[in-house]
Each structure stands twice: as C-alpha cells, then as structure tokens.
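Figure 2 data, in text form.
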Amino acid sequence: MKIPCIDISVFDAATGWCLGCGRSRPEIAQWRKLTPFRRKAIERDLSRRRSALAAAAEMTSR
C-alpha cells in the first residue's frame, strides 16, 4: 500500500495538516483502514493542501 508520508511529521496549527505530506492526524492514524476510494480522494487533495501550506508559510515569512 502506498503511503504519502515523507518522514516530516510537523503539523500546521491552523489547518492540522502535516507539513510533509499534507494529511491530518486522523487521516494518518486511519490510513490503513480507509477504503481505497477514500485514500484516493485524500491523495487527490494533497497537492492543494501542500500548496496552501506553502503559501501560508510564505505570507508569514514576509
């Protein structure tokens, strides 16, 4: 089973998403139990989440 983790487990306080993979703590904890459909839905959203995290980090660094 493919796991999107990249071994950076730091979570954004505002969104609760992991700065490395973009998943939330509950999504990470339940990953192996999720249906393939639900995993794919989360995977499709991860790039948007990571982009949002990067944009927020850029705004706070200014």
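Caption note: The radius of gyration is 12 Å.
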